[in-house]
Every structure is written in structure tokens, then in C-alpha cells.
Amino acid sequence: MYAMTDHAGLRTADDDLLPPPDWGRPRTTAAGTRAVWAFAAVAALLVLGRVWIAPDLDGRSLDAWTTVFVAICVQALPFLVFGVALSAAITAFVPPSFWNRVLPRRPGAAVPVAGAMGAVLPGCECASVPVAGGLMARGVAPAAALTFLLAAPAINPIVIVATAVAFPGSPEMVVGRFVASLVVAVLAGWAWLLFGKGEWIKIPSRPHVDGAGRWESFRQAMRHDIMHAGGFLVVGGIAAATINVVVPAEWVNGVAGIPWLSVLVLAVLAVLMSICSEADAFVAASLTQFSPTARLAFLVVGPMVDLKLIALQTGFFGRRFAIRFIPLTFVLAVGVSAITGEVLL
Amino acid sequence: MTRAAQNLLLIMIGAAVMWITLATDEYLNYVKPGFRYLLVPAAVALIALGLTGLRREWRDDTGADGGGSGGGGGGDHCHAPGDDHGHDHGGRGPRVAWLLCLPVLAIFVVAPPALGSFTASRAAARQATPPPPPDEGYDALPRNGTPVAMTMGEFMGRSYEAQTGQNSSLTGVTVKLTGFVTPGRKGSTWQVTRLKMACCAGDAIPFPVVVHGLRQPPTDSWVQVIGTWHPPASGARSGVHELDGRSLQPIKKPKNPYE
Lengths: 345, 259
Prior knowledge:
Strand order of the largest sheet of chain B: 2-3-4-6-5
CATH architecture of the largest domain in chain B: Beta Barrel
Oligomer: heterodimer
CATH class of the largest domain in chain B: Mainly Beta
Largest interface: A-B, 67 and 68 residues
Number of domains of chain B: 2
Shape of chain B: elongated
Largest sheet of chain B: 5 strands, mixed, barrel
Helix content of chain A: over 70%
Helix content of chain B: 25-40%
Strand content of chain B: 15-25%
Largest sheet of chain A: none
Distance between the termini of chain A: 46 Å
Structural class of chain A: mainly alpha
Strand content of chain A: under 5%
Radius of gyration of chain B: 27 Å
Number of helices of chain B: 7
Order of helices and strands of chain A: HHHHHHHHHHHHHHH
Order of helices and strands of chain B: HHHHHHEHEEEEE
Distance between the termini of chain B: 41 Å
Number of strands of chain A: 0
Number of strands of chain B: 6
């Protein structure tokens, strides 16, 4: 159980869920065996680096890598800070009863309303998983809560502004992101309503954060989210800078030249990079070799499916939920963004 | 990651951002000038968050006597002394947060310079499309021989118009271009290049102009080239924009190295 008794309330359970204790490791491996594997992986990396990276490495490429890396981190930082502040404020100051008042009783109708609410309320994806868990615990239909979980990090105002800043002069990218993400969230919610079984999902129980110490709860939630999201932003920055500087341009151009492959590659990249939605538009904008549709797929998939979300969702709602919901979301996200890209971009 | 480490890390990130925006102009190597109005408040928020955390948690950790009589700025928290001790686990940050040290280290230790010829040559395969002209079209230019200072984007836009025969506003006009030197692809010629940034250095694309008739200065040095537009030798829409150089002056790197 993930008991949550501290100030930060909904936010802190995921600390010990990255990776969740039972995820991908059926038996406990002996420490010695793990060390051997770790060393084998390091050795393989060293060999690969020697073969591919060392011949091309010169001071200028190292400089360029560092510049791109710092640039992506620096420009994403303000959006991260303000987004996290707003979502922490919502967690700390919006009472949970509010959600039950605004959402319709019928689950089928509650799904699109929950999606639309995601457009108004900022929330980082790391925050939206616990928030969705809290909604379910307070009697909101799981399908509606899941729609909110998918929509909130993808289409909230901060993310939309960040996308507009990252893609100046192409409002169709902003519109495409908004429409595609909302459609995916609502479709996933309805699909869960139609086909989902109650026993698949483990609804977390959650004590209420009372009025006392709200500021304290706000402060802790904000710091916690910056630490989490910031760490993953750095991972994304490293990956983007490496693609920008190290990966041979011909490869990237080769992949980028095949439409379906480039969409799929960027979708998988979004999953692997696990960038916070407030920051991912800047990484997408830096992948200039790829088509707008592929970059849209990156923006739609990223906030809905990525490594940290897989870990978080498994931890909160159970493995039986995650192995069904995550593939569903991924397929929907790729499909809808490909169609939206065809129509809009 | 302990809470103290998290607070200190927040302060360090804030300080790094302050350093590149207020203390130096280094942020211009990474992002557009307007970003300072976002970066500074974000840095202030980070530092405030870290300092409040340090102050409160230090007070909590020094025991109940400190907890009750703290007073002052954080007065509106009704915070039971010792409340934190039971939930030490919840306050610990994730290990991935240590990665946030990397950009801070890079900013202070490496101070990465603006992108230059390396990025320009890597991105050369991608043909930069010239920026669209302003809605009312380009103005006419004086043809009296006085050099007209012009951005690379404007030169390429006008050159593109001239190549496609829409409007040859460049013919006979002396222009002055500012950029850094990149080696040309055919050996003999070289290019003066400026990187165009849509949002940050990560998406920079090169705007190169081939220079004829002048000796190549060292690669990556900044120059001002005065010359006239060179009509393309082959094909109207070559995508290559050229200049007959008349004179050249080495300059210091401009404050904002991007366009």
C-alpha cells in the first residue's frame, strides 16, 4: 500500500514507484548477477561509443552538444516552474468535492466533460496520475478520471502557450496538438467505459489533505514536481542534443523521409524520453528534420504514454490496468495524430 | 535525495539562470532575447522555493523549541512541530532529480558558446527556405552605393524573389551582411552564415550566403561583408544565395549571435 499521510498529499506516493517494486523483475536477482549485467551493459556502451562516437568527436561537436542541451533545459525551465506552481496550487487549494459537483452523473457524459476540464486546469503528467487516483477514490467514474488523466497534461493552457512559443508562426501545430490530444483522451475514456472491467483497476484509497498547512502542502508539492519533472526534462534534453549532434544526419534524414516510420520513431522516442508536457514542445521543435505530422505524434504521445507514466500508472492502478490501458492509449495516440497531421498540417 | 539537497539544488538552478540572464548575456547563446522576462521570474521562484524550504526544514530539524517560536515570514502555516519527522520518506526526492545538476554544471563549468560552423555544416543538407517577405512586400532599396545593412534572412528573401523573377530589388544595391565564416562546399568559395533560431538553439537552422571574390577568413570568425547580389549561374531556383564581395571587416561576435 502506498500510504499517504504527509503534507504533499496526493503527490508523493510515486517516489518509491520508479520503477515499481514488482515491475519487470519477477524474482529478486542476486546482487552479484546484477553487477555482472551492469558491467556488461557499460562495456557494450563503451564499445559502441568507441565505434560510432569517437571517430566523429571533436571539440566543436562537444561544444554544440552542450549548447543544445543547455538551451533546451533553459527554455523549458520557466514553463516547468509556472506549470508546476499552478498544478501544485490546484492540488493544495481546490477541494476534492469540487470535482464531484462539476462532473455529470452519467459516466458517458462525464468523459468529455472531464476531457474539457483538462483543457482548463493545468497539471503535469506526474501530478495528473495521483489526481486521477484521487478522483476515482472520491467516486468519479474511472473512465472520466482516466480521460482527465490523459487530457490534463496534454492540453492545459500552459502547455498550449509553450507549444505556441516553441512553434512560432505555425498555429496549426497548436490546434493539431489540442484537437488530437482531446480526441485521444475522450476515445480512450469511452473505450474504457465500454470494454473496461472494474476488477482490472485498483482504485487507490486516499486521505484528504485538510485545510491546515495548505501552503506547506503547496510548497512541498511544487518542489517534488520540479525535482521529478526536471530530472526527466534533463533526460529529454540529453536525448535531443544527442540526436541533434551525434546521430549521423543521413540516418535521421533517411528515417524522416519515410512518413509512417518517422511518425512511429518519434512516438517511440516520446515514450523513451519521458519529457514533461510543459517542456516537450521545445524538444519537438528542435527535431527539425522530421515532418510536422511526426512531431505532432511526439507531442500527442509524450504526455499520455512514457516511461515514467507507465511506472506511475502501474504503481497506482495495478499492473493489470497498465498492460491494457497503456497500449490502448499508445495506439489511439499514434493513429489520431497521424490522421490529424494528414488533415491539418 | 534529501530535502536539504533538494532545496540547495533549487537554489543552484535559480542562481545559474540568474547568472546567464542578469550577470552576463550568456542566455542569448541559448534562447531568444525575449526569454529573459520568463527566465528571471522563474529563477526568483526557484530561489524563493529553495530558501523557504531550507528555512522551514532547518527549523523543524532543530527540534520542537525552534518549531514553535519561529514566527516571521512563514507565519501563516499552522504547522505542528515534529509533524515532518513521521513522514521523512515523503519529503525525499527521486534519484532522477540529481540529473538537474548537469545543466547547472554545464552553465558554470563549460559555459557552452553559441553554435557555429559545426551546426551549420551538419544542417547544410537541409535547405533553409528563405523567410517569407513582409506582407506589404520588400521596400525599394537605395542604389547609390551606400551599403545597406541587412539581415541574412532579408537578403535571402530578396534574393529568392530576384531568382524567381518576382521582384529584383537587389540588383545593383550594395549590402552589408553580418555573420560567421563557414567553409564552402566546393572548396574555392566560402560562406558567411548566420543561424536562425525559431525558439532555442536546438532548432537553429543555417542561413548561408556564398561570398565570391574575397579571401576566406578563419572559419567561425565573425565578419561584416560588403558586396552586391550575385545572380545565380545555374538555374533560377538554385536555393543558393550568392554575393560578390567588395570588402570585408572582422568584427567581434555580436551580442545576439542568432537571427
